[in-house]
């Protein structure tokens, strides 16, 4: 796994700034987490959304990717008129 970490982080860093649709899978303490069409459950990383408010589990929301980690992405809600 340690050999994969820099590769995964570099791949994720290339995605920073993009806006993607994210399926909300859960919420906790004002944060939400989910995945896009490109992330398989239980295999790939997830998206953590800062300042998520009260998003409904099961909803799709536009998310701007603002930071990359080794396996996960950190995002914020994007306006609904952002291009995806």
Counting helices, strands and paired strands, the structural category is mainly beta
Q: What is the CATH homologous superfamily assignment?
A: Nucleic acid-binding proteins
Largest sheet features:
5 strands, mixed, barrel
Question: Which stretches are poorly predicted, pLDDT < 50 over at least 5 residues?
Answer: none
Q: What is the fold named in CATH at topology level?
A: OB fold (Dihydrolipoamide Acetyltransferase, E2P)
Distance between the termini: 31 Å
- Counted up, domains total 1
Tell me the radius of gyration. 12 Å
Reading the helices and strands in chain order gives: HEEEEE
Helix content: 10-25%
Averaged pLDDT, please? 87
The share of residues in extended strands comes to 35-45%
- Tell how many strands the DSSP assignment holds: 5
- Sequence of strands across the biggest β-sheet: 1-2-3-5-4
Number of helices: 1
CATH class: Mainly Beta
CATH architecture: Beta Barrel
Notes on the structure:
This is Ribosomal protein S12 methylthiotransferase RimO. It is an enzyme of class 2 (transferase). It holds the Pfam family TRAM_2. Its EC number is 2.8.4.4. Keywords: Ribonucleoprotein, Ribosomal protein, Transferase. The protein is mostly beta strands and 84 residues long. It has one domain: Nucleic acid-binding proteins (OB fold (Dihydrolipoamide Acetyltransferase, E2P), Beta Barrel). It contains 1 helix and 5 strands; from the N terminus they run H-E-E-E-E-E. Strands 1-2-3-5-4 form a 5-stranded mixed β-barrel. The mean pLDDT is 87.
